[in-house]
Write a structure and sequence with these properties.
globular, 7-stranded antiparallel β-sheet
């Protein structure tokens, strides 16, 4: 499967603890041998997993393959196909506070806590499930609710174990481990179940909720700098950073695998806007060719945006395509505000209202082999349009080593995500075959995302980019160089690419 990144410089480059107190379980049922404490001399746990962004650390069961997926709320997943088990860790942030245990609402009504809600949801999905355990434990200073259930998928018995850790009444971490269940539950003791319960119990003893106060402080400081940066992004500043034509050479492990042609120009239909067109071709592997074409448009005040991103993948003579259309707008509305006094000198009965900017994004898709529902999102004030994101390294103050935080649309994951950018001090380094002074810019999606490094000259000239994880390098080039490498290079001006008719 070929993963198609956003058609931007950043997108092309990403083609691709201390001892913790043991949990004391004083309320666990005593009539279930599979829950008994039967130690194993071998260490059943793997290396520590730690995520500052997610705010958690733990040791997973040994033998699992770590998988990170673009799934909302999912932190990580471990899969062991040989042993037929899977464990998923999620972080849920609730809009309304719901504690772990049963509680009373302001009206005095008894309400189920997160543990009961999780159990009710599971039993609706698996009506015949047997509840083997439902209780609370304390791990270090954090309380957790535990569930163990037997159920069947067709004729296959399964064992589900869940541990819900409460960071606060709005943030909960859930560990879910699915493993083979007992073939004969009436026997009272199944070695596979017993082993799974033992491993899960040892794993939750290692869970630690991290203090994210320092991360929050860093984010707040970055956002403050970002708001200050926006003030300096005047129409003249953005226009001055535009380059009419650019040719980029894309390499992996020193081998050419593609190219990109870019045009940046004023919007002919909107005098207060700009348009950036990109045409790209890559050959990420033998027998595969990816052609992509985009137009990214925005007004200079960044209040209105429109873009199209079309990708055609040809594999062994067969074509697949996806076209993405995005529009973002800021609309000024009048909203009631009880904190304000109503009325005006001309109309004392005027209700108390204030002006409010509503910032929204809508993205729709046309695809041949995959269905993607339309997406609509409310946007934070630090969102930047796709066109500005494409130009970002050229819009940063290079003489001031600072970190910034933006919100951007990430096509690969169909979601608004945080983009961390750090301008570092100038340094001498070998780049593009020669020793030169560069200003490195560290750029990543998410706090722990794979970093892309953009290199700028002291004078603000773009010198190239690299992602060391994907081993991809982008270098500025010119048209003759690309035509020498790619005899059939299509370096024509990008144009609207109509999607093929659905079959």
């Amino acid at each position: 499967m070929i993963r198609i990144a956003r058609l931007t410089i950043l997108g092309l480059l990403t083609l691709t603890a201390a001892p913790i107190a043991s949990a004391q379980d004083a309320t666990a049922p005593s009539d279930l041998p599979l829950l008994a404490d039967k130690p194993d001399s071998a260490d059943p746990l793997g290396p520590i997993f730690s995520s500052d962004a997610a705010g958690i650390t733990f040791r997973p069961p040994a033998g699992g393959k770590l998988i990170r997926r673009p799934v909302p709320d999912e932190i990580v997943q471990y899969v062991n196909e040989e042993a037929s088990w899977m464990m998923t860790v999620t972080r849920t942030q609730l809009q309304d506070a719901i504690p772990l245990r049963e509680y009373r609402d302001p009206n005095g009504q008894t309400r189920p806590g997160m543990l009961d809600l999780t159990l009710d949801r599971f039993k609706r999905q698996q009506p015949g499930a047997d509840v083997l355990r439902k209780n609370f434990v304390t791990v270090g200073r954090t309380e957790a609710g535990l569930l163990t259930l037997r159920y069947a998928v067709g004729a296959t018995p399964k064992l589900s174990q869940q541990a819900i850790f409460q960071s606060n009444d709005r943030i909960h971490y859930t560990f879910t481990m699915i493993s083979p269940g007992a073939r004969d539950p009436k026997s009272g003791d199944d070695p596979a179940e017993r082993r799974a319960v033992e491993v899960f119990r040892k794993m939750i003893d290692t869970v630690k909720i991290l203090d994210r106060a320092e991360i929050k402080r860093d984010q707040d400081e970055r956002l403050y700098r970002t708001r200050s940066l926006f003030v300096n992004w005047t129409p003249d500043r953005i226009k001055a950073a535009m380059v009419p034509q650019q040719w980029l050479r894309l390499m992996r492990d020193g081998k050419d695998i593609g190219y990109t042609y870019i045009v940046e120009e004023p919007d002919k239909d909107r005098p207060d806007g700009i348009m950036i067109g990109l045409r790209s071709r890559t050959t990420p592997e033998s027998g595969v060719r990816v052609d992509a074409e985009s137009w990214l448009g925005t007004t200079l005040d960044r209040r209105h945006e429109v873009w199209t991103n079309a990708v055609v993948v040809e594999r062994d003579g067969k074509q697949d395509y996806t076209t993405e259309f995005g529009v973002s707008n800021v609309a000024t509305e009048r909203v009631l505000d009880p904190t304000l006094r109503g009325g005006t000198p001309d109309d004392a009965g005027q209700p108390p209202v204030r002006k409010h900017d509503s910032y929204t994004l809508e993205v729709t898709y046309i695809a041949k082999s995959a269905a993607h529902p339309p997406v609509k999102r409310d946007l934070p004030v630090f969102y930047i349009p796709q066109a500005v994101g494409q130009m970002l390294p050229k819009l940063l103050p290079l003489g001031e080593p600072k970190g910034y935080l933006f919100a951007v649309w990430v096509s690969d994951q169909h979601e608004i995500m945080a983009r961390y950018v750090d301008v570092e001090p100038a340094r001498d380094m070998g780049w593009a075959g020669k020793k030169q002074t560069v200003i490195p810019i560290r750029d990543r999606i998410g706090l722990e995302g794979s970093p892309t490094w953009h290199y700028m000259s002291i004078d603000g000239e773009y010198l190239g980019s690299e992602n060391k994880d994907s081993k991809i390098v982008i270098l500025p080039a010119d048209e003759p160089t690309l035509r020498k490498i790619w005899s059939n290079a299509d370096l024509t001006r990008p144009s609207a690419m109509p999607a093929p008719a659905a079959k």
